Amino acid sequence: MTTSVHPNAQAGFATGTSESYDRVRPSYPADCVSYVRSQVPKSTTPLKIVEIGAGTGIFTRALLTHPEWDDDEGMRNFWTKCVQDHRCTITGWADLIIIAQAFHWCLDYGKAFTEFARILNKDGAAVFVWYLADREAAGWVAQVQHCIEARGNGSPRFRLDVLRQAFSTPEYTSLFHPQEEKQWGSSWCCYRANLSQDRVLSWSYIATEGIKVILERGDGKVWINKEQGTYQDPHMARVMISRKK
After folding, report:
1. Residue among 62, 43, 41 nearest 51 (CA)
2. Which of 1, 31, 199, 245 could pair covalently with 24 via S-S, beta carbons 3.0-4.6 A apart?
């Protein structure tokens, strides 16, 4: 049977690693979350959102704790009580589809966008969000990313730009307007000397002592407080918006 999900994504992470994954991955910048909210008129309330590939909920929490995103606790509790199957979505229902740090795993863009168009309402949009290590900002960041890619076993990554193939499929061009893009630079502060190493090793296919050597050498590392072991861990947020025709 064929699948539209990458086998590395299907394999997932080892049992018991989700807590570590959540602990070492950065949250999303407030400007990025605010920009996503601005894609729907303020008058549209309550918002109907479908989040796909939510993982441990890092983006979900960033969204729900942001002041521009209203959250009706009563509605949420009633939904949780009455709907037992999270896969249920209604045709023409959603204002937004949000996929954070996940869509690059999709292997069949045409089928994906056909389904997105089905569940979005006439003014809806699909929003794709990434918060990526900024390899241009420091030598150690680029070296770590090179190690990850060399051991990725064919895993798709946003930096390889394979995602852009999605926006040229016949299904996309017939159902959506040309994508809009925006990005932000943001340095994430590491509060422990080995936090960057832990984050790299949280990728399901990475386990190497080479990462430790790169981080200890620290080419281009910018210290915030060396005695406390805090330094800048440069990241870049990127958002792509696909509006339904």
Report:
1. 62
2. 199
How far apart are alpha carbons 51 and 30 in whole angstroms?
18
User: Mean pLDDT across the stretch 68-85?
Assistant: 57
The tokens for 151 are: 């051991």
Instruction: Give 3-state DSSP helix, strand, coil % of the chain, rounded to 5.
Output: 40, 25, 40
The conformation of residue 219, written as its DSSP 8-state character, comes to T
184 phi/psi in degrees, rounded to 5: -135, 145
Q: How far apart are CA 116 and CA 239, in angstroms?
A: 17
- What type of residue is 101? Q
Contact 21, 56 (CB under 8 A): yes
In whole angstroms, what is the distance from residue 168 CA to residue 175 CA?
11
**Average pLDDT of the chain to the nearest whole number:** 77
Cβ(221)–Cβ(143) under 8 Å?
A: no
Pairing of strands 223-225, 120-133: unpaired
210 three-state secondary structure: helix
Higher pLDDT, 46 or 8: 46
